[in-house]
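To: structure subgroup
Subject: Chain for Friday's discussion

All,

I'm putting the inputs and outputs inline so they're searchable in the archive.
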Amino acid sequence: MEPTPTAQQVIDEVSGSGAGYVKVAVSDIDGVLRGKYLERDKFMGAVHSGFGFCDVVFGWDSSDECYDNASYTGWQSGYPDGEVRIDLATHRRIPWEQDRHFFLCDYVGSTAGSVVCPRLALKGVVDRAASMGYAAKFGLEFEFFNFRETSQSVNEKGFRDITPLTPGMFGYSVLRQAQNQPFFEALLSELAAFRVPLEGLHTETGPGVLEAAILYSDAVEAADRAQLFKSGTKEIGARLGIMPSFMARWNASLPGCSGHSHQSLWDVEGERNVFFDGGDPAKMSATFKSYLAGLLCLLPDLTALLAPTVNSYKRLVDGFWAPTKPNWGIDNRTVACRVIPGSAASTRLEMRVPGADVNPYLAVAACLAAGLYGIDRGLTLDQAAVEGSGYHDGSVERLPANLQVATQRLADSKVAREILGDALVSHFVQTREWEWRQFQDAVTDWELSRYFEII
């Protein structure tokens, strides 16, 4: 493994490269990258003093419609610039942009003491883990459908009768890989060059659907990789006439798309997996059990952070490879928390609630914060492991069934505000209330076909 470059080495590389412009970006509350190009001298100045970015990036939704209920920013404040700090440790070169320099940034914002930036919120949880003697490792994986479409063509078609990359249900198909080799090769090689290494990439069951497992790393880097995987895959696909979609479930007759997160806790040196206990039948340490107990306890309150869109809940239905109960089991893919017993290096937890539409920073922050809560409170794992179908588990309540219910659970949760910060939770709740209202005001295809003629 190559040594991590120092901040000065990164600065020297950019300044000595002859680059005219550097690309920078922040993640908004929906996990959409909002960025710009900075002229090199402007960038060099911003390295030390930061730069301004209009705080509307936290004042509008994924369609750039301004919230009418957000207190963080809005027409009432005039949408001032907020401070952005460049994180030099995120330095990458974009291979599909002539190796342009790229950096992720933290949005400090325009309101002192109010952390609404998902990446900053995750860093706060990671700092709490370190204060407790732990370092967290995460690895995210995504399923996503791909279409032979462009942004213009899907809009012209009204998102109907769109053409999948390949027809039929071809899970793990070598044939389908060979038929789309340029796309597969571009994802494998260019994402690796972009410092988003994949552990695996294969077709899943469904027309044009792929699954990618991103190589695990520390919590913030893992979320960075997940964020950049989604944006990078879209940019690579566009060049080849392919449009990936990370909707949780785009078609009622097809399976949904997961965004599972594998996670474990280690000592602060990163040398010992504190989840592992070789003497336990499931290889689970007492620390692991308390972490899991915290997740199970808080999962109903935190569901909105793991399932953040109206569409998320179309995936969380019985029998569709997505969990519907806050339960756990050993290597059981029907439960929310799948314990994977293994070696001292591989024993871990897979959180199966998130879909591909998740904001990686919020998903990782919510899981880690809930797990640390369980450890800090010394919670015991009283819930029995599910054997068989987790959908038939009558010992626990169902997870929230839609975004409105999930948002209300989060809004009412004192613990969520305690472990994630009141500013972040309040802002996120307001944005989800807005999202639900937009859905409630929409006239859907289902309503037209059901009521247009007969009522």
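Points worth raising on Friday:
The chain has two domains: 7-114, 125-448.
The radius of gyration is 22 Å.

D.
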